[in-house]
Design a protein that fits this description.
Structural class: mainly alpha
Strand content: under 5%
Distance between the termini: 13 Å
Number of strands: 2
Strand order of the largest sheet: 1-2
Number of helices: 14
Helix content: over 70%
């Protein structure tokens, strides 16, 4: 491991990835979500986006290399996306009666086979263009922030006048979700540029963030708001932004206080591999448990057992992939 690597970010990504795995385990094993999506999944995805922004560029914005970043994206996200989604398309088509291999391959082409990875790539491309357009102009940071917020507001406005079905029909590579994710990527970059992470170490900051997140979650749950990023189904875009940002801050603040937990950091370092299998492995485990005479019978301990098996299986796959790549 690189001695300069921030293991806090690995821990945070590991926690977020486990949250996503738990959600998919619940859905595939029980047929529904038990812990509401709005309580953790949306926060995990937007925290991933924030961290991606934090790691977006190692130098100042003025020294940003578009060519280097595009090469990094192709190697680090596009090629893994194509490889894993095409490989997984075959078993998916075999298991699902209502899905053909051509259907799955079409989803790969239009960026819906692994929607978050596709949306993150689009988000980063948009952000690269914003940097290119603003870095030589007066007040580049202000223009960058404005350029990141405008697509979010535009998407929020469009959702008030266009139905979800109409939006989904014109959503290749989940570009609409990417527009909602763009401010979080920008804030992550600026958080690093301004060296703001240290402020999360203050106990008063953690307490304040906990109170803010608790209040926001109370509002979201009691009023039954939805904050689904893909397909977009958001009751309040201001709540989505506030909850996403406060949640990311709280997750990072808490993870900075955790000791080094090697298995959790392994999940975080290789979270992309975990994400590609976060649907296939829970589905396989759920099918296996049902065939073994262990269907879900209303006990959450059963979900936790399935979740443990999912974590073990996905980690085995990730470990094997890492060894092969080396």
């Amino acid at each position: 491991m690189n001695s300069t690597r921030d293991t806090t970010l690995d821990t945070a990504r590991g926690c977020c990835m486990l949250s996503i795995l738990l959600f998919h385990t619940e859905v595939y094993y029980t047929g529904e979500e038990i812990i509401p999506y709005v309580c953790h999944v949306c926060n995990s995805l937007l925290t991933f986006t924030f961290i991606s922004g934090y790691l977006f560029n190692k130098t100042s914005i003025k020294d940003f290399s578009t060519r280097h970043k595009f090469r990094s994206m192709i190697k680090g996200m596009l090629l893994p996306y194509l490889f894993f989604t095409i490989v997984l398309a075959i078993p998916k088509a075999m298991v699902k009666d209502d899905v053909t291999l051509s259907d799955e391959l079409l989803r790969v082409v239009n960026g819906h086979a692994s929607w978050y990875v596709a949306a993150l790539m689009v988000t980063e491309v948009l952000f690269i263009l914003l940097i290119r357009l603003t870095r030589q102009l007066p007040h580049p940071t202000l223009l960058l922030v404005t350029g990141s917020i405008v697509p979010f507001l535009a998407m929020a406005t469009a959702c008030q006048f266009i139905s979800n079905e109409q939006l989904q029909a014109i959503n290749p590579w989940c570009w609409q979700s990417a527009m909602l994710m763009l401010p979080f990527l920008c804030i992550g970059l600026l958080w690093k540029q301004w060296d703001m992470m240290k402020y999360l170490d203050r106990p008063t900051t953690i307490v304040a963030l906990f109170i803010v997140v608790a209040v926001l979650k109370y509002i979201v749950v009691t009023h039954q708001f939805t904050l689904t990023l893909e397909p977009i189904h958001v009751s309040s875009f201001m709540l989505l932004f506030a909850d996403g940002l406060a949640g990311a801050m709280l997750i990072l603040a808490l993870c900075r206080r955790l000791p080094n937990i090697t298995p959790l950091q392994f999940v975080g370092r290789h979270s992309l591999i975990y994400y590609f299998f976060c649907g296939a492995v829970p589905m396989a485990v759920a099918m296996a448990l049902n065939k073994c005479g262990m269907p879900y019978q209303g006990q959450y301990l059963q979900v936790l057992l399935a979740f443990l098996l999912v974590c073990i299986a996905t980690t085995a796959i990730a470990w094997a992939m890492v060894k092969i790549r080396k």
